[in-house]
Design brief:
The chain is of the alpha+beta class and 241 residues long. Strands 4-5-3-6 form a four-stranded antiparallel sheet, with helices on one face. The longest helix has 27 residues. It starts with a helix and ends with a strand.
Length: 241
């Protein structure tokens, strides 16, 4: 379709401006969700959510209005090709967004991380589809709701979300004694040992890699105090998720 034909087609220039407005609004909604994720230092941040949301809106617009110029033999307009569902492109967004979600989920030992980010990307795609379809109010409400849920649930956590994964590393010279020391430390921190791995670092030193779940992250100060009280521990490190 040429530019002149597009100006005189069923989609007017004002409708095109409306479509551009939908895409811009989807960018804003995606940015709100992405900003909260970036504040939490997650892999999928503002740019990812903006692109997902506006691309979903674009796909929805194309799916809904992109085939209005197709005609039947009788001269009547078709909403897409003969016998096809005009929402077929939008439906592929729902299933196609899964590759981004899967890319944000990863496993560290026996701990799975990134599920919330993946769910947020999936929701962002749905918001983009809603705005692209012209459901402005629903899209804005959903974007605000997702952002509020993501932000508040880090402060008012429930169930397993209330626990932090702590990845600890220790270098010890007396593994048998350290076994009892580690149990005492888990009780002191009110922690649950999820996983641990033992490897030989040198002839004298053994490396313990421990995963603990705690209600509050184990700080370096707490770890250093613990190490100072036990001579069999040469060094330690912690990483919280």
């Amino acid at each position: 379709m040429t530019l002149i034909e597009s100006l005189t087609s069923q989609i007017s220039i004002f409708q095109n401006i409306d479509f551009m407005g939908r895409i811009l609004l989807s960018c804003i909604c995606g940015a709100c969700i992405g900003y909260e994720r970036s504040q939490r230092l997650k892999e999928a941040g503002v740019r990812t959510h903006v692109i997902v949301c506006f691309a979903s809106a674009l796909f929805m617009i194309v799916s809904k209005y992109g085939f209005l110029d197709l005609e039947q033999g009788s001269g009547g307009f078709l909403n897409g090709v003969r016998g096809a569902d005009p929402s077929r492109i939008a439906s592929q967004v729902v299933s196609g967004i899964s590759f981004l979600g899967a890319g944000s989920i990863f496993r560290h030992r026996n701990v799975v991380m990134g599920l919330t980010t993946a769910a947020g990307i999936w929701a962002t795609a749905g918001i983009g589809l809603a705005i692209g379809a012209g459901l402005w109010g629903v899209g804005i409400f959903a974007a605000l709701l997702v952002t509020v849920i993501q932000a508040l649930m880090h402060k008012f956590v429930i169930g397993v979300d209330a626990f932090t994964n702590n990845f600890l590393e220790f270098l010890v010279d007396n593994p048998l004694e350290f076994q009892h020391t580690l149990e005492d430390f888990s009780k002191l921190m009110d922690a649950k040992i999820v996983d641990y791995n033992i490897s030989r670092e040198s002839k004298k030193l053994t490396k313990y890699t421990v995963t603990m779940k705690t209600k509050k992250p184990i700080t370096m100060t707490q770890l250093n105090q613990f190490i100072a009280q036990h001579e069999e521990i040469h060094s330690g490190a912690t990483n919280n998720v």
